[in-house]
Amino acid sequence: MRSNLLQPRVVAVERLIPADAQRIFDVLADPAQHPVFDGSGSVRQAQEGNPERLSKGATFGMDMKLGRRYQIRNTVVEFDEPRRIAWRHFGGHRWRYLLSEAEGGTLVREEWDPTPVPRAYPVLALTGFPKRNAEGMAKTLERLQEHVTRS
Fold first, then answer.
1. Distance (Å, rounded) from C-alpha 14 to C-alpha 10?
2. Which of the residues 99, 107, 145, 149 could staple to 17 if both were Cys, CB 3.0 to 4.6 A apart?
3. Reading across the β-sheet that carries 94-102, which strands appear in turn?
């Protein structure tokens, strides 16, 4: 896990995935595939009525479980195909994926960015979210690699 020096509260995990950036981005931009590569164990399934492909401003819902089952709506707030995609939910923090070409494939960086809601961070830190998120993100990138290189 590496944090950005300018924004030390951003949790980031990187992995070199031996696949084309567009292939990876296509998976990230398809909400129906999010439960397939989620490594946290909290994303259960995509809700009905989601767009087939995400775009800036698109909203999509997920059935989740973190202790208990719940539903969440997300809004895509960053979208630069095939380099960047990020979404946020009502809490305001962002889940971001940054893709860059690298020797041997694509360097994928996943970030959990709570900086838009600084007042919430102390509670999130006390409950262990940054550490748990880093662990889940590492598993997510591993599963993402397995998924995009399978076929």
1. 13
2. 145
3. 2-3, 11-17, 105-113, 94-102, 84-88, 68-80, 59-66, 43-46
| The pLDDT of residue 50 | 98
Distance, CA of 101 to CA of 25 (rounded, Å)? 12
Per-residue b or e along 117-137, where b marks 16 or more CB atoms closer than 10 Å to that residue's CB? eeeeeeebeeeebbebbbbbb
Instruction: For residue 125, give both structure tokens.
Output: 């830190």
Cα 3-84-79 angle, rounded to 5 deg: 130
Residue carrying the six token digits 């590569």: 37
- Phi and psi at 115, nearest 5°, equal -60, -25
The predicted structure's pLDDT at residue 151:
61
Mean pLDDT of the residues in the chain: 91
- Is a pLDDT exceeding 60 seen at residue 80? yes
The predicted model scores a pTM of: 0.89
- Residues 45 and 33: their CA atoms lie apart, in Å, by 9
